[in-house]
C-alpha cells in the first residue's frame, strides 16, 4: 500500500513539475477573424504582454471565414495542451443559433478558459444624417421601416432585440464585415447599424459617423453624449460585445490555470487596461467558473430573441 501511495505521489509530482514549466514552446493565439478588427487588436496587445511574461512567443494567427467557424475548427482539432488557443467574440455562442451546419459543437468541443474583455454594442448613424439622438431614432422606427445593417450574429440579434423591445419597424441588411457596413452608413446606402465600439471609433473620430445609442445600462465614457437604451425606456436592449479565450476540449485544469494566471498578471499592469479604455472596452477577467455561467446565460438570452423573432438557422 505504501508503494502504491508513493507511486501516486511521484506521478502527481511529475505532472505538477511539468505544468510548472508551462509554456515550454511558442503558443498560437488563433483569431478566427480578419486582421485589424477588435479581436485582432486585443489579441496582439495581450499576446505581446504574455510573450514577455512567459518568455516564449505568443503568435497571433488570423484564419477568417464563416463568421469565425473556420479558425475555430482549427483549434477544435488541435491537441488540448494549451499551445493553440483562440480569442473569439460573442458570435461564437450565437453561431449555432443561426447556422444549421457547423463542423463542431460550440459547447462540447471547446474548453472555456476565461472572459477577457467586453464593451457594449453601439448604434451608429451617419454624422450628417437626420437622427439627432436616440429618441429621434426610436420615434422614426415607430413611424415606418428604417434600414439597420449587421455584420455577424450578435449584431443581427441585437437589431432584432431592438425591434422586439421598441415595437418599431426595422429592415435588417446583412454585411460581410463591420468595415463595409460602416462605409455604407457613411455613404447613405443604409441608415443605421449595430457594431462594436472598436469598429465605430475611427469613423466617429474622423467625423463621419455618430454613435447615438449604447446597448447597456451604464453607458460609456468614450461616447458621453450617446444615450443608453435604458435611458429611453428600453432596458431590454442590452448587448455586450465580449471577448473570450477558449481552447480545444479536454484541456487540463493545470493548463487552464496557467493561462488564466498569466492573464491576471499581465492585466495588473496599466498598459492593457489603458489601451482597452482607449478603445471603449474594459477588462472582464472573471475565471473559468464565472465564464461558464456567463456563456450559459448568453446562449439562453439569444436563443429566446431568435425564437420570438422567428429567426431560423440557415
Name some characteristics of this structure:
single chain, 314 residues, alpha/beta, D-Maltodextrin-Binding Protein, domain 2, 6-stranded mixed sheet, 11 helices, 12 strands, disordered N terminus, Tripartite tricarboxylate transporter substrate binding protein, BUG, Bug_dom1
Structure description:
This is Tripartite tricarboxylate transporter substrate binding protein. The chain is an alpha/beta fold and 314 residues long. The protein has 2 domains: 27-119 and 240-309, D-Maltodextrin-Binding Protein, domain 2 (3-Layer(aba) Sandwich), CATH 3.40.190; 120-232, Periplasmic binding protein-like II (D-Maltodextrin-Binding Protein, domain 2, 3-Layer(aba) Sandwich). The protein is built from 11 helices and 12 strands. The protein has a 6-stranded mixed β-sheet, sandwiched between helices. Strands 7-6-8-5-9-10 form a 6-stranded mixed β-sheet, sandwiched between helices. Strand 6, helix 6 and strand 7 (170-174) form a beta-alpha-beta unit. The longest helix has 21 residues, at 288-308. The chain is globular, with a radius of gyration of 21 Å. The model is unreliable at 1-18 (pLDDT under 50).
Total beta strands: 12
Uncertain segments are: 1-18
Please, how many domains? 2
Strand content: 15-25%
**Tally of separate helices:** 11
Cα(first) to Cα(last) distance is 59 Å
Radius of gyration: 21 Å
Order of helices and strands: HEHEHEHEEHEHEHEHEEEHHEH
Mean pLDDT: 90
Largest sheet report:
6 strands, mixed
Class derived from helix and strand content: alpha/beta
Task: Quickly describe the structure.
By secondary structure, the protein is an alpha/beta fold.
